[in-house]
Amino acid sequence: MNNTTIIDPKFDRTKTLQYHISIQLSLDGYALCILDTSENKYLVLKYEIFSKRFTLRQPAMADQFYAKIKEILKEDEFLNNNFKSVKFIYQTSKSTLVPDELFEITKLKSYFTFNHKLELFESINYNKIDSIKAYNIFTLPSFLTTILINKYKNIEFYHQLSPFINTIFSKSQKFRNTSNQKKVYVNVADTFFDIYVADTQKLYLYNNFHYKTEEDFAYYILNTFEQQGLNPDFHQLNISGKNISLNSPEYNLAKKYIKRIKFLKLNTLFKYSDKMNQIPEHSFVNLFNLYSCA
After folding, report:
1. 176-263 in CATH: which number?
2. Which CATH number, 3.30.420.250, 3.10.20.310, 2.30.110.10, 3.60.20.10, labels domain 4-167+267-292?
3. What is the pLDDT of residues 45-54, one digit of tens each?
4. What is the pLDDT of residues 67-95, one digit of tens each?
5. What is the residue-wise DSSP string for 62-112?
6. pTM for this entry
């Protein structure tokens, strides 16, 4: 997907204190959308790809990423405003789900490090996800948390799992799984994808996989089908994310093995600028649904 900026004619730069902004950041770019909460309508969508993909494990590259974020916050025509509310996703494959009944805030580090390495530059965060009665523990780069809190006093931090779970269990008819059968959901990021198996009542599996080729992509999904006892000729695969389309080699290989594949639609609980029709609906599902996260 190319760099994109969509602005509805009704967007008023003098009224940003009446708007909500959702921001999504990854190591290869960032996206934002702005919601007029009085009309429940999205007026702005912006997506920008960085000239290179950063890595935080190399100090020099991490410094460059930090400088890039400071530059964006200062120069972006939307981010340099103040807003009624601000919610932020940092896309990362590092997270751990803990059931409500087992969660203790004093054990955040032990929960996280059971599955992932905690880097020196990372700080631990968590969200409660009521719909699945669980907590999601994840990390953010500490410098990122600091700079964003200094910029937006009312900011809330999330992992992409939270809005996606809201998507799966949304009251919106476009998302409701009326058959009460298990379905597979895949949200594709730049170098990894999240995968979920759920019906209308329960999340059965959440995992993520790093991939380099379309063969990797198809293998991990088909393996999930097999492990969950699902039939690729019958059970449905639902896809979202800006990094995949009808023309993607990942999609074209997957559809050779999985008969029922659908791209997720926009949540009908919101209204959207007519100009946003030019963007495939599945591209920014998490970003648009972030506002609904409590």
Report:
1. 3.30.420.260
2. 3.30.420.250
3. 999 999 998 9
4. 999 999 999 999 999 999 999 999 999 99
5. HHHHHHHHHHHHHH-TTTTS--SEEEEEE--S-EEEEEGGG--GGGHHHHH
6. 0.93
